[in-house]
């Protein structure tokens, strides 16, 4: 029998820093679990839609296998599990327009879905060769988090409406932070960069329950309705399918979180926007993640915490900084310690705003200024 320790020894997964509480970049395999509540009488329709989806997803790069299971207690409850070589190819697929179109037939026959994603840490099984173990990469160690789930939404508004939208998004009453006995809203940070809006939330407990709680609050609903005429992507919040598609496309998942360990309630929060070249968003996010991981061990770094969000070619880095942004070394804020790192970053950006390659000694101020997002509101619950 192959032991779990042998599996870990044969793994090519990258050893994670103790500063990293969340990351999709360690190379370990991913297990995705989708809980599905099927409409009464729609089981056969759901099965046919799944079989069509299964045939399509089998050709997606990085996909290994999947299973469909039906509850032995409640025929309306189904479970879909899939295995992926690692998290990045899954995220690239699940955040794509191809995925939005692919799963559309499922939504006509389901009441509710819930997606959970897990890195594989340990496993047991039959005899395996060294090559088998090398191919089945495991997360090398459990991550120690702070109990906070981080997520973001992003969307664009019509050019010329930025000031109106910023005022609407800043002028509303905060929703009740307590969702239930186990879930609480901790912080909401909202930024804009040109006509792009990014809303980052921090939650303790159940993220899905928190998002649904917020969506039901009258003050939040009024804000959402007020910005509707200014959105570049039309939506109708009274139409469940329209709302679902909008928020599916707006989801901006957290792909990496680093903390230097220092707790400083006076830390300033900033957001930096990195528009990536086509199909280079994941690579850019990984580059920034590696820089933040290294910077966490650098006592000179003013960055106390960093969360990287990425979807397609949109990359946002949310940072908590010791002191004021304008007083810090822009290279340290950007996580760049030499000219090679600067050059690599600018080759991945859609438009670094530079007429010539950026050097370590020049241009970083301009690069930082172009990346910096405008703060609209940053709200914490009283006991966050």
Radius of gyration: 22 Å
First and last CA, distance: 47 Å
Number of strands: 13
Major pleated sheet: 9 strands, antiparallel
Task: Give a description of the structure.
By secondary structure, the chain is an alpha+beta fold. Strands 1, 6, 7, 8, 9, 10, 11, 12 and 13 form a 9-stranded antiparallel sheet that branches. A 4-stranded antiparallel sheet has the order 3-4-2-5. The radius of gyration is 22 Å and the shape is globular.
Provide a brief overview of the structure.
By secondary structure, this protein is of the alpha+beta class. Helices cover 32% and strands 28% of the residues.
What characteristics describe this protein?
single chain, 384 residues, alpha+beta, 9-stranded antiparallel sheet, 4-stranded antiparallel sheet, 14 helices, globular
SSE order and pairing:
Blueprint: H1 4-9, E1 20-23, E2 30-38, H2 43-57, E3 63-70, E4 77-84, H3 87-94, H4 97-102, H5 104-107, E5 110-119, H6 130-135, E6 148-156, H7 162-170, E7 184-193, E8 196-204, H8 207-216, H9 218-227, H10 240-250, E9 251-259, E10 268-275, H11 281-295, E11 303-311, E12 314-321, H12 330-334, H13 339-348, H14 364-371, E13 374-380
Antiparallel strand pairs: 1-9, 2-4, 2-5, 3-4, 6-8, 6-9, 7-8, 7-13, 9-11, 10-12, 11-12
